[in-house]
Amino acid sequence: MGGALVIGAGPGIGQAVARRFAREGLPVGLVARSKETVAAAAEAVGALGVRAVPLTADVADETALRAALDEAVGELGEPDVVVYNAAVIRPDAVGELPHRAHLDTYAVNVLGALTTAAHLLPGMALRGRGTFVVTGGMPEMKPPYVSLSLGKAGVRALVELLDTQYGPSGVHVATVTVGGAVAPGTAYDPEDIAEHYWRLHNQPRERWEREVTY
N or C: fewer beta carbons within 10 Å in the chain? Predict the structure, then answer.
């Protein structure tokens, strides 16, 4: 069993999703930029009685990200479900960020997801099954969040492209679009949001959804 692989396993949605899949008995690979973050995620998953594989990588570093993905596959096998949850979330208005800062943000918000998909989805397609879910956002673009709005628009386009390419081979590609700030005990509680990732993974093919807006 390849289990689940969560890229962007920080507190909030990433760790909630990891725990949700772990409660179903799936081993979980976890990727985060800091050792402290991924160690905390692995401890929470391990407490549920399943194997956790903690890995560190900056998703904006293509070489490091691909190496972490290879290590996850080496430890757990080809994943049954991959969740890309990494993002740079910050307020910035039109013209406020320099060109380089926009590129760095886009590398995390979109290109890391593209790299992950390019690395793992061909294998899923060969097996004829698998789930790839990206955490989306910004159902409506917001001028105070330009880089995030651009990134989440890119994610939506990427999911559509991947679904077109890999969906016919049996790979369910989808996005969970979160419309507000995530925090426990609020309307955007990460534990509630995590249920949608599990639901998408278990949808029968004839009922596949490409986007869930929360």
Answer: N
- φ, ψ dihedrals at 30, nearest 5°: -130, 130
pLDDT in tens, 20-46: 999 999 999 999 999 999 999 999 999
With CA atoms as reference, report the closest residue to 183 among 13, 39, 49, 20: 13
Token pair recorded at residue 201: 């993974």
pTM equals 0.95
How far apart CA 118 and CA 189 sit, in angstroms, is: 31
Give the pair of three-digit tokens for residue 134.
């990206």
Q: Which CATH number fits domain 4-213: 1.10.1740.10, 3.40.50.12280, 3.40.50.720, 3.40.50.300?
A: 3.40.50.720
**Do residues 55 and 18 touch, judged by C-beta distance below 8 A?**
no
CA of 87: how far to CAs of 35, 77, 137, 161, in Å?
A: 17, 26, 10, 20
Q: Which sequence spans correspond to the domains of the chain? A: 4-213
